[in-house]
Amino acid sequence: MEKTDRIFVAGHRGLAGGAILGELQRAGYSNLLTRTSTELNLRDRGATRTFFEEERPRVVALAAAKVGGIQANNDHPVEFLLWNLQIQNNVIEAAADFGVEKLLFLGSSCIYPKFAPQPIPEDALLTGALEPTNEAYAIAKIAGIKLCQAYARQLGKRFISAMPTNLYGPGDNFDLASSHVLPALLRKVHEAKQRGEREVVVWGTGTPRREFLHVDDLACACRFLLEQHDDPALINVGCGEDVTIRELAETICEVVGFGGSLVFDATKPDGTPRKLMDSSRLRRLGWQPAISLRDGLRSTYEWFLRQPATIRET
Ligand code: GFB
Known about the structure:
Mean pLDDT: 96
Radius of gyration: 19 Å
Order of helices and strands: EHEHEHHEHEEHEEEHEEHEHHH
Shape: globular
Structural class: alpha/beta
CATH topology of the domain at 7-171 and 213-240 and 276-291: Rossmann fold
Low-confidence stretches: none
Bound molecules: guanosine-5'-diphosphate-beta-L-fucopyranose
Strand order of the largest sheet: 2-1-3-4-5-10
Number of strands: 12
Helix content: 40-55%
């Protein structure tokens, strides 16, 4: 990949896409192409094709997606399945038809079976039933991986897929109904401290285990893969360590400086019991993460505090 290559970062207003854009800018890529969803609706096949035909990007980082936490996934399977299929089908097809030389598709660790072996190797894909709360999203992402592989096999396209674990960081969604656990708990604990409350409600039993990767680490891995990796087999991007939701909540209480207690609401779903990914393939290629969970939590909380109240309270 040349520093002057025209690179389209699809989804640059999102958590992953924004970090990828920043990473490429810092690395000296000077011809980056972005569109907001108002400027270009990637669910619209015609508009997407016109954009590719006119702009002719050489490289695409496909981070545009309908994403959300366990509740949003559970409540809106139509949007998670349909919108993601539309976005990725339109972008991947247009990329193939209008001469894109390299495309990186971002999936998710929820593509693996609910009871996959831990840590989860890439070859666990399609070996068992999915976690029901995010089946719709997972099926869309699996279809995206398969479409990239089909283009690679049938037409020799350099379309690759990376599977990030649960991401967090600056720019995350802090809306309690649709967010992932980490931003939700940061906000809940912060607000409980501000209001002088003594308890914070944590959904589920607190026993599920999750692996959290700072989005800047993900962005660094994406640049590494764009620059150095052409294998269409999917590749996991994780930090190699997981924590229980209770441990995460306790660490957040320490970072925020909240001395109250945690209350677990078992009427809310736990989701998959564990999804620690085996990221040894990526390690062997020479990439490793740099940001510990505690450091990442601190800097994300500092970022959160700098936001205007209107953003924090969306
Ligand atoms: O991050 P999260 O929403 O998604 O939830 P998943 C992780 C765990 O945290 C679940 C618990 O066991 C939740 O019950 N949890 C505790 C909370 N308190 C809260 C809270 O206040 N908010 C939220 N959201 N969770 C998503 C998938 O699964 O992960 C997506 O649905 C995607 O498809 C994404 O794969 C990375 O890790 O369970």
